[in-house]
Structure prediction request, 257 residues.
Amino acid sequence: MKHEIRELLEAVQSGATSVDDALLALKMEPYEDLGFAKIDHHRKIRNGAGEVIYGAGKTAEQIVTILRHMKDAGQERILVTRLDETKAKAISEDEGISDFTYYPEGTVGIVGGMPPKNGNGQIVVATGGTSDLAVAEEAALTAEFLGNDVVRLYDVGVAGLHRTLSHLPEIMDAEVVIAIAGMEGALASVLGGLAECPVIAVPTSVGYGASFQGLSALLSMLNSCASGVSVVNIDNGFGAGYQASLINHAGRKRQGL
Prediction:
């Protein structure tokens, strides 16, 4: 694959291929088939961010194999989500993957470290309670992996509204707010009424019986009376962090940054 890309770039250099035709060819580059997985090596060219590995349901051996092939294809930084400690230990012991860091709070593994921060502003990640921390860290680490400056406001739920209001400067200065809560999910509406930026609501499966594993919070967030609130799926910290990064980088693509 590297040889084919080199030939394509040499054709552009010689004038045999136009830049636009080469870009189209790169965007349409086929995936690599490992049998148990098909790796999209050129996702970053199309979407701005490389392939992410979803760790749940994969064996440690499968994850290691995917990581090796991604690194061989030139992807320097790789995010692995929903990664338990046993699999993380196996990855860290693999000789071919020396630059791996595991973040147990968010069950996230990162190869290649964090990039420089290059977003338009700050992303605030706020939780209703400490029990939402795992989802919040998945969101925060995803956003940081994508080059964002993240401010964490944990345990600021509406059961003690003074805790939320004590952080008004951070909330009002944010470029994006991620509101993460279980129970009745009211935090998203409160933050949506305070912030002038987009608010991404993440319902969590935290709560007693009638919360229905996050369904109650999901429906509350979908029915928010605050303008500017959008909602991702239950416990989907990764999706919220990724979407927040897209918002925080809006306009930079057109500026060539």
In short: Residues 88 and 102 are 7 Å apart (CA to CA). The radius of gyration is 20 Å.
